[in-house]
C-alpha cells in the first residue's frame, strides 16, 4: 500500500472520528404492493428504520443515529432485533442496509462503550457486536450494503458482512479496519471476514497499518464491489437486488452457507473466549489510558 494511502488513513481517522459524541426455494407470487415501516425504539428515538416492500420482498434498513451511526449497545440491540424480525418473515428475501446520516455509513464502535465501563458492561457490549455480525453474515436473506459515506472500523465490518457492497464514488469517503490507529487490535473474526473479502496479504497490510481506503482504492482491492454517483447508491442497490433475487433461494442460500459456515463456526465455538479476551484487553490500564487521551484530544478539538 502506498505511503499516500497510509497518510490518508491518519487524516481520515482524525476527521471522521472527531464527530463522535462520546426464505423459499423459488420466487413466490407477490401480494399487492404494501410498504411497511417498522421502527425499533430502545431509547428516546429509533436508531433503526426499516421499510419493507411486501410486493418485492425487499427491506431497506436505514441507520439513523446521529451524528455518525456509532455502534453503541442500544444501537446494536435495536439493529439485531430488526434483522431477526425480517429473517423470521419468510416473505422478506432481501435486505439493503444504508445510512440516513450525511457523509457517513457508520463510524464504527462507540468509544464510550469501551471507556470507563465495568467488565460486565464491556462483555455485554461485545456480545452485541458478535450478534450483529452473526445475524448479518449468516443471514438467509440477500444482503447489500449501500455505503453512502465513510465507513471505518466496525462500520467496515458491517459492510463486509453483506453479500454485495455498493459505495458512493466520492474521494472524501473512506473505508477500512483502522483499529490499530486507536491502539485497538481487531479480533480474529474481523480479520477472517476481511481475509475472505480481499485476501490474506491485503488484509495483513490493512490491519497492521490500520489503513483506510478511498472509494476507488476499495474497489481496486475488492473491499467494495461497485462505485456509483452518490445520489445513485440506493437506486443501484435496489436494481442489483433484483438480479440476486432472480436466483432460486435454496441454491443461493446453500452456496452462501458453504462459503461462510467455517468462518461463522469459528466464532460460535469460541464466542465466550472471545468475549473474555476483549474484556481483558479493553479494561487494561494502558488501553483505558489511550482511550482517555483520545477522548481528551477530541474534547480540546471541539473547543
From TrEMBL:
GO terms for biological process: fatty acid beta-oxidation. The lineage of its organism: Eukaryota, Metazoa, Chordata, Craniata, Vertebrata. Keywords: Acetylation, Fatty acid metabolism, Isomerase, Lipid metabolism, Mitochondrion, Transit peptide. It is an enzyme of class 5 (isomerase). Its EC number is 5.3.3.8. The keyword Hydrolase does not apply. Homotrimer. This is Enoyl-CoA delta isomerase 1, mitochondrial. Pfam families: ECH_1. It catalyses: (3Z)-decenoyl-CoA = (2E)-decenoyl-CoA; (2E)-tetradecenoyl-CoA = (3Z)-tetradecenoyl-CoA; (3Z)-hexenoyl-CoA = (2E)-hexenoyl-CoA; (3Z)-dodecenoyl-CoA = (2E)-dodecenoyl-CoA. GO terms for cellular component: mitochondrial matrix. PROSITE patterns: ENOYL_COA_HYDRATASE (PS00166). Pathway: Lipid metabolism; fatty acid beta-oxidation. PANTHER family: ENOYL-COA DELTA ISOMERASE 1, MITOCHONDRIAL, ENOYL-COA HYDRATASE-RELATED. Key enzyme of fatty acid beta-oxidation. Able to isomerize both 3-cis (3Z) and 3-trans (3E) double bonds into the 2-trans (2E) form in a range of enoyl-CoA species, with a preference for (3Z)-enoyl-CoAs over (3E)-enoyl-CoAs. The catalytic efficiency of this enzyme is not affected by the fatty acyl chain length. Belongs to the enoyl-CoA hydratase/isomerase family. It is found in: Mitochondrion matrix. One of its GO terms (molecular function) is delta(3)-delta(2)-enoyl-CoA isomerase activity.
